[in-house]
Amino acid sequence: MTQFPAGCLTGTVVLDASRVLAGPFAGQLLGDHGAEVIKVESFDGDDTRGYGPPFVNGTAPYFLGLNRNKQDLGLDLSGPEGMALLFELLGQVDVFIENFKLSTWKKWGVDDLSDLNRRFPRLVHCRVSGFGETGEFGGLPGYDAALQAISGLMAVNGPPDIDACRIGIPIVDTCTGMYGAMGILLALLERNRSGRGQQVEVTLYDTAIAMLHPHASNVLNGGRASRTGNGHPNIVPYDLFPTATVPLFLAVGNDRQFRTLCTELGIEALGTDPLYRTNRDRVMNRETLRAALLPPLSKLDGMPLFQRLMELGVPCAPVLTVDEALALDHTATREMVVELDGYKGPGIAVKLDRTPGSVRRAPPTIGAHSREVLARFGLDPDRIAALAEARVVK
Question: How does pLDDT run across 177-189, given as a tens digit for each residue?
């Protein structure tokens, strides 16, 4: 049997009753670093199991990408027996992640979610929602693209001559999951001092607003948030340029890098031209600068130029497809593709040298570990069999 290193969250027990993306991703991040994560799933399963094609043995990769390193407890929460069992388990776990509607909680007899922490004083309860429960939009459902739209993220994405454009990944959901995991870790750290848990609230709306840098900071301090396409509102040249082969993104962050770029392109005088000498100058004259850079770039092979510029300390990169990026030797060297028991997914981004994360479990089927999980929480075989017979658990 494969031996995995003990992750930094080994011994932390997480009940993940969330669905779709943000909550499950938070749970997976904790599981990657050693937490014992138990996914509580309805008999119908998480919606994302059907978010395909493609499918792997009937399950969409969308689900597989968010639910590794978890055991699965199939639990029917529509009746009192299922809810009673959920509360029984909450008394024995460290973390509870959920994204149920407040109306659902009220239907279950919980009118005030702070009751959970009064009942389970050491519990870290992470609640994920679209807009939160307060304010003008409180209680409304939230979906990634809709939050990109209402937050302003969509308005600043894409070329200026087209309509607002959705960012091509569910970035609000993903970042909400990251914030959720961060909040859980903060609460666990504080619990070490106080002995008390607390509620951690993350919302897609709050996350989307928090992600608006530098546009929000610009607007709040007298500037504007304009759509600049691949260009950067505050840094120039920070944009995509054609070459003779592949498109190349130049990410020139300071004046030295700009002068080095100009020298390498054979237009050294441009680096000290008063119109472009400093970043402030270049931002004010971005269009004429772009016009000056296009001719020399269009004559060069983008891949060798990328390598030369990076060696000289000028940040840039070719535009690759997802397939090409996943196939890079560097991706393999960084262990950013993992495989386990037929599962394939992206690797673990946070690398700890003494207590590294690991992928120990492939994403589970519905109820795959119900009996094992319930036994782990002290239920005897007869009771487990009765719960299964009554269709409370699967």
Answer: 999 999 999 999 9
Domains in the chain: ranges and CATH = 13-210+334-389 (3.40.50.10540), 238-326 (3.30.1540.10)
Q: What are phi and psi of 105, to 5 degrees?
A: -60, -40
Instruction: In whole angstroms, give the CA distance from residue 81 to residue 362.
Output: 29
171-198 burial, b for 16+ CB within 10 Å, e for fewer? bbbbbbbbbbbebbbebbeebeeeeebb
CA distance 368 to 349: 27
The bridge status of strand 343-346 relative to strand 337-340 is antiparallel
Annotated catalytic residue, options 111, 173, 206, 380? 173
Q: Where are the alpha helices (DSSP H) in 299-380?
A: 302-311, 322-327, 329-333, 370-376
> What is the tens place of the pLDDT at every residue in 117-128?
999 999 999 999
Q: From CA 53, how far away is CA 28, in angstroms rounded? A: 22
DSSP conformation letters of 132-151 = -SSSTTTT----HHHHHHHH
Q: How far apart are CA 43 and CA 364, in angstroms?
A: 13
Is the preceding peptide bond at 237 cis, omega within 30 degrees of 0? yes
Using CB atoms within 10 Å of the CB of residue 124, give its burial: 0 to 12 exposed, 13 to 18 middle, 19+ buried.
Answer: buried
Among 311, 313, 315, 275, residue whose Cα is nearest residue 291 = 275
CA–CA separation, 127 and 175 (whole Å): 15
- Band (109; pLDDT cuts 50, 70, 90): confident
Query: β-pairing, 199-203 with 124-129?
Result: parallel
72 in catalytic set = no
* Rama region for 20: left / alpha / beta (φ>0; ψ in -120 to 50; rest): left
Backbone phi, psi, residue 250, to 5°:
-95, 125
What distance in Å separates the CA atoms of residue 229 and residue 129, rounded to the nearest whole number?
A: 30
Contact 68, 363 (CB under 8 A): yes
Taking the C-alpha atoms of residue 145 and residue 168, their distance in angstroms, rounded to an integer, is: 10
